[in-house]
Amino acid sequence: MSIAVPGVPPLDWVTGGGRAEMAADDTLVVTAAAGSDWTNDAFDGPRQHEAALLGFVPVGEFSLSVRARVLTERTTFDAAVLAVWGDSDHWAKLCFEFSPQGQAMVVSVVTNGYSDDCNSSVITDESVYLRVVRTGGGWAFHCSADGVSWTFVRVFHLAWDGPVSVGFLAQAPLGERCDAEFTKTAYSTAVPADLRDGS
Fold first, then answer.
1. Is there a contact between 98 and 77 (Cβ–Cβ < 8 Å)?
2. Domain ranges across the chain
3. CB contact at 8 A, 49 and 173
4. How many other CB atoms are found less than 10 A from the CB of residue 144?
5. Bridge-based pairing state of the strands 38-39 and 48-49
6. 178-to-16, 31, 96, 103, 137 alpha-carbon distances in Å
7. Cα-Cα-Cα-Cα dihedral of 16, 19, 23, 25, to 10°?
8. Residue 25 — very low, low, confident or very high, per pLDDT cuts 50/70/90?
9. Which of 89, 102, 87, 72 has its CA nearest to residue 171?
10. If you compute the radius of gyration of the chain from its CA atoms, what whole number of angstroms results?
11. Dihedrals phi, psi of 27, to nearest 5 degrees
12. What is the distance between the alpha carbons of residues 26 and 29, in angstroms, rounded to a whole number?
């Protein structure tokens, strides 16, 4: 059964079934089971795609932004995530993640065969805005404290010509569970003219 978030195309489970619910004020909560993650280890470790993506297939250029927060007690590498999925070798995720040093951070992972993992901003607030943009043949990730002025995280290309799904994910690779909350969701077919000027 599809899940409806106002202003966003209907959402369905893309990478296996998961658990999600709509709460008050158009709030989406996605729950990750213990051990769930996406990783194509760059050092040839085991690959893992157990986290369930709740998403849709976008058409053309678009931007999708949310305010992300983790409701459960934080554990290492847990995260509320905006994710892009082509197949198990071609995907990307923008995470509000908890580091091994006990810091909440914006972390991005881009996978073309192997995962390229990059830590960005340390977040001292309990939530952060995340945004994914597709423009032309490329993608961009941004984060924001207020959902108005955006900090550039990275641009990237996925070596994948098939359809992609975009949406919401929670991960708990080392914890018992992770409840990821997504609010202030905004979807638009208008994209920033400049990916690096804060717009």
1. yes
2. 12-188
3. no
4. 18
5. antiparallel
6. 17, 6, 12, 16, 33
7. -30
8. confident
9. 72
10. 15
11. -95, 130
12. 10
Q: Which residues are paired to 77 by β-bridges?
A: none
Instruction: List beta partners, residue 195.
Output: none
CB 94 within 8 A of CB 130: yes
pLDDT the model gives residue 24: 86
Residue pLDDT, tens place only, 105-132:
999 999 999 999 999 999 999 999 999 9
Pairing relationship of beta strands 27-33 and 19-23 according to DSSP bridges? antiparallel
**Kind of pairing between the strands at 90-98 and 38-39:** unpaired
Q: What is the pLDDT of residue 16?
A: 86
Mean pLDDT value of segment 126-141: 97
**CATH code that applies to domain 12-188:** 2.60.120.200
